[in-house]
Amino acid sequence: MNNQQQKWLYFSLLSLVWGSSFILMKKALIGVTPIQVGALRMIFTAVFLLVVAAPSLKKIQKKHYKFIAYTAIAGTFIPGFLFAFAITTIDSSVVAILNSLSPFNTLIFGAIVFGFGFKRRQLYGVLIGLVGTLILILKGAALNPNQNYWYALLIIIASIGYAFNANIVKKYLSDLSALSIVTGNFLLLLVPAIIVLSCTDFFVTFDLGNEVLMESLGYLAILSIVGTGIAKTIYNKLVHISDPVFSSSVTYIIPLVAIFWGVLDGEKLSPLQIFGGVFIFLGVFLVYKKK
To answer: What is the band of 170 on the pLDDT scale with cuts at 50, 70, 90?
Structure first.
């Protein structure tokens, strides 16, 4: 498989996996709190990666750990809690749509903070994708007037964190394998996540006989292993073989997958939102079009 085929394979897998993550978070929140979702997701992922990928840590040099810490905080720790809180108030499909701000932030912060260049066409693609995103958001707000869209600010902050994560990986960790970066991330996050979880009542109220709790933990296990551990490894690999803007453009397709699951779960979707989805695809095309 050549480099071009690998890029689109990783892009498609991430769209499917991360697009399904929002409905999994929504289901997990039935039995646990947002803080517990964020902490447990990191703990489950850390345990999984340390079991299957511990040897990859040997490749990490002392100079890498500072940047691995930055990506762990910006790309995992903070967004993990922000998304969990947002989904308690906003439909999972709408949260996924708001996450489409990530490519825009990646392009802007990449140029301002990290010195990465970009083509005018890429900027047009990002802006067109944002138009599609706005159509989806505004129509979603009209269909769901009882939802608190102030929580959208949490997703905007998370998308900025993802932007910094992508640019740091590209600029400072390009000599390190994707698996090493992700395993290093969660090695550093394991203890903080356990501390956060211990500050809740999780260990006090934990009951193996609680079917709702066990079902929530099952959703979290899938979300952690597939949606976080494996997917983040694929994402970092995609950043290595492409560029941060193209990699972050996966967030344009994620909403379409998330909307599909949301509709199956009873969330509303209008023809205008489908039209917005067409704009999103056009944006991705322009971002990655070679000429």
So the answer is: confident
Average of per-residue pLDDT across 129-150:
75
Q: pLDDT per residue over 43-56, tens digit each? A: 999 999 999 889 99
Q: Which residues of 32-49 are buried (b: 16+ CB within 10 A; e: fewer)?
A: bebbbbbbbbbbbbbebb
Q: Kindly tell me the number of DSSP H helices and DSSP E strands found in the chain.
A: 15, 0
How many structural domains comprise the chain?
1
Structure-token match 């009882």, residue found: 146
Provide the 10 A C-beta neighbour count for residue 69: 15
Calpha distance 14→7 (Å, rounded): 11
Secondary structure class of 174 (helix, strand, coil): coil
Return the amino acid letter for 17.
Answer: V
Question: Cα torsion for 5, 234, 258, 256, to the nearest 10°?
Answer: -20
What the block records as the tokens of 55 is 């040897």
